[in-house]
Structure formats: C-alpha cells, structure tokens
Design a protein that fits this description.
Forms homodimers or heterodimers with TCF3 gene products E12 and E47. These dimers bind to the E-box site, however, heterodimer with MYOD1 does not bind target DNA. The protein is built from five helices and no strands. It is mainly alpha-helical and about 190 residues long. Helix 3 runs antiparallel to helix 5. The chain starts with about 35 loop residues before the first helix and ends with a helix. The structure holds a DNA duplex (16 and 16 nucleotides).
Length: about 190
Amino acid sequence: MKTKSRPPRRRAPPQDPENTPGERTPDRPPPGSGGPEAAKALRSRTARAQGARAEGGRRRPGPGGRRESSVQRRLESNERERQRMHKLNNAFQALREVIPHVRADKKLSKIETLTLAKNYIKSLTATILTMSSGRFPGLDGPGPKLYQHYQQQQQAAGGALGTAEAPPEGHLQKYSTQIHSFREGS
DNA sequence: TAGGCCATCTGGTCCT
DNA sequence: AGGACCAGATGGCCTA
C-alpha cells in the first residue's frame, strides 16, 4: 500500500491530561522544507502527532515514579530526539524533491525514497560511465580507468554484502521499471 | 478490519 | 558528563 498526502484531520484531544507530561515544546515547521503539498502534509502530521505525543508511545511510570531532575532530563532528551527526527525527515523530503519523474500528488514513503534514490544514483553512474568509456570519441578522459574503478567498487560492495550487482547498462532499465511500478501504485 | 506508514517515547550504547 | 544515535514499543491515521 502506498502513502499518499493526506488531508488535514482533526484528532480528538487527549482524554487524560493527567498523563500528559508538562513543558512540551510545540512542533515547529522545519526550515525550508518542500512545497505547499509537503507543508500541508506536515501540518496534518504534526497536528496528529501532538495528540499522539500526549497519550501514545511507551507507557510512562506513574507520578512519583521518577525524580523531578530525571524527568526534566528525559523531557529534554525527548525534545532533542524529536528535533533529530525532524531533521531526518527534512532530509527525506529534500531527497524526494530531487528524484525526478515522481508524481507531485503522491508522497513516496521512506523506504520507497531510499530505494528509488539508490537506483537513480546507479542509473546516473551508468550514464556517466557510458559517456566516458569511449562511446563518445570526442571525450578523451579517463574513461577506462573510471570503469575499472567502478567495477572494483561493485565487486567490493557485492563481496561485503553478498549481493550480485547488475551491469551498469541495466541500472537505467531497473530505475525506469521501478518508477513505473511506484507510479502504478504497486 | 488488517496492514502499512508514521511520530513519539524510551532506555541503551557510542562518541566527543 | 552530556549529546547523538539507535532500535524497540506503542498508538494514531489512512487505504484497500
């Protein structure tokens, strides 16, 4: 199933304010993230997240179960973790925006983004190798050396990961196929 | 309703 | 010591 940009949706307020840790920093929009579509999705998410934060997540120890200084440290740590995840999500969004041929109304999931980016990079690498390996006589660069380097990298990666890599010519085809499958919503 | 995706909390570990 | 990083747990929202 695919993740799509969702309309903003109100979420019921927390039923138990007693369980809501105090001193929560409100979510703030990430600096310079995406277009209006991304911003809308973000607003929707953060609105939901605020409620989820109040009652969701792992069970917290009851009142008095933790010292105040410890609680304060935990809250600060939570805030830092939240900011860290926001930065990570900003990076994901930035990555989504530089992957071409993706429909604007469909937000790629994180795993889709990473997979598509990987294959996109491979297809670009294959293109560069093709252009620099003698098929374009006008370019007298280090084509063969570049290709040798690429092959060494592939062997090293394959050896370490136990994976069999496709030849460079196949990456573009693989990338195109993947884009198509994502667009079809498979 | 099940499954996918996500945000958040949390405690452990690593790093500076 | 304190912050960054990581992974597990939990619960909400959405779509098929």
